[in-house]
Amino acid sequence: MANLPSETLTKVFYLQRKLFEIINESTAVDYNLIQQFGENDQTISELDELQNIKERSRDSYNRLSRLLLMVAEAQPQADQDRLNLLYRSIQKTEASLEALNASTQEIKNNWSI
Fold first, then answer.
1. Residue 18 has pLDDT above 50, yes or no
2. Residue 10: Cβ within 10 Å count
3. Which of 14, 24, 43, 49 makes a 20 to 30 Å CA pair with 97?
4. C-alpha dihedral sign at 42, 44, 45, 50
């Protein structure tokens, strides 16, 4: 059976929750920025950055989900390559969370949203 340590599952679900929160927050900032200031020369770079934050977060979320499912469906056990991909994805996501969140908060603060 392709079991993972509970700590690994907990970490993946925690990361997915944090990515969800970043996607939700950056979408709200995007919406409010457009509603309050419109799409113009002053806001376009911020709107592009918010789109980039959402895409990177969505990609990380989806990658974690796919890899976790691949491991769960591997029988009788997951091969080392799949596990390595999952663990590398966890590390990459952990490394990018703070930057994604900080970028969103910076835009939010810059525009007093």
1. yes
2. 11
3. 43
4. positive
Contact 88, 71 (CB under 8 A): no
Please write the tens of the pLDDT for every residue from 78-88.
889 999 999 99
Q: Please, are residues 15 and 59 in contact by the beta-carbon 8 Å criterion?
A: no
| Sign of the C-alpha dihedral computed for residues 8, 10, 14 and 20 taken in this order | positive
Section 103-107 average pLDDT: 98
Residue 5, preceding peptide bond in cis (omega within 30° of 0): no
Give the C-alpha separation, 51 to 29, whole Å.
Answer: 11
